[in-house]
Amino acid sequence: MTTAGKAPGQAQANLIAIPKDWAYDFLLFTHRNPKPCPVLDVLDAGETVSALKQDADVRTHAPRYRIWEHGELTAEPENATDHWRDDLVTFLIGCSFTFETALENAGVPLRHVDQKKNVSMFVTDIQCRPAGRLHGPMVVSMRWIPESLVDIAHKVTALMPSVHGAPVGAGDPRMLGINDIHQPDFGDAVTPEPGDVPVFWACGVTPQAVLMKSKPPFAITHAPGQMFVTDMPDFAYRVG
Predict the structure, then answer these.
(1) Contact present, 45 and 56 (Cβ < 8 Å)
(2) Distance between CA atoms of 38 and 53, rounded to whole angstroms?
(3) CA dihedral 238, 121, 17, 57 (to 10 degrees)
(4) Rounded CA gap, 30 and 128, in Å?
(5) How many C-alpha atoms does 140 have within 13 Å on its Cβ side?
(6) Of 142, 161, 153, nearest in space to 109 by CA
(7) The whole model's pTM is what?
(8) How far apart (Å, rounded) are the C-alpha atoms in residues 16 and 174?
């Protein structure tokens, strides 16, 4: 179940919990790659409650989780409690679902929400800046936007850099190494309307692509598009 369109006005977050001995590498990775990995909160090792949602457990609050071992996806439980380890450091990373209410308020349609689908996500050929043992490509989310509204979408989202900010591209998907816009790597294929063009934002699923390449021994993430919904209002991440 995607959380797109499910919590208007509330900030949503990507989640990754990684062993403490990898946490510095990951923190450095987020610092070097703030566009796809803007950090909203970091929990201490073993901690399970975030200041962003004090009545929720990070092991159970997302609709679905992913369990990773040496870069391989081994399970997708609805509850990560049985897989939890006390050495895990949890990072909550900004999510573009947070700026979707602002887009709607500006008159920009959300095709994936209207079609009751998850947003489309693609692995690009843009390599993130490595950090320690972590390396891998940037993932982007894609929304079909009427060509006449692309500039508005850019301006609206540029004001929210903590949830990925302005797009990284629009138009020809081949500029990002995407060969088939109708075959996303994560999420659902979304049907465009006449006059729509694809617009791409850096995506917080990037850490999952990094896990596949870097192969740490263990990690827990949310399932793509099934986010950790916080109590923070979306406007808290708007600047200017």
Answers:
(1) no
(2) 18
(3) 70
(4) 10
(5) 23
(6) 153
(7) 0.96
(8) 29
CB 63 within 8 A of CB 226: yes
Classified as helix, coil or strand, 25 is helix
The tens digit of pLDDT for each residue in 33-61 reads: 999 999 999 999 999 999 999 999 999 99
Select from 93, 64, 59 the least CA-distant residue to 226: 64
The vertex-185 CA angle with 57 and 34, nearest 5°, equals 60
SS3 55: coil
Residue stretches of the chain with pLDDT short of 70: none
Please state whether beta strands 196-202 and 10-19 pair in parallel, antiparallel, or not at all (unpaired).
Answer: unpaired
- Alpha-carbon torsion 74, 75, 79, 81, what sign? negative
Residue 226 CA, distance from chain mean position: 9
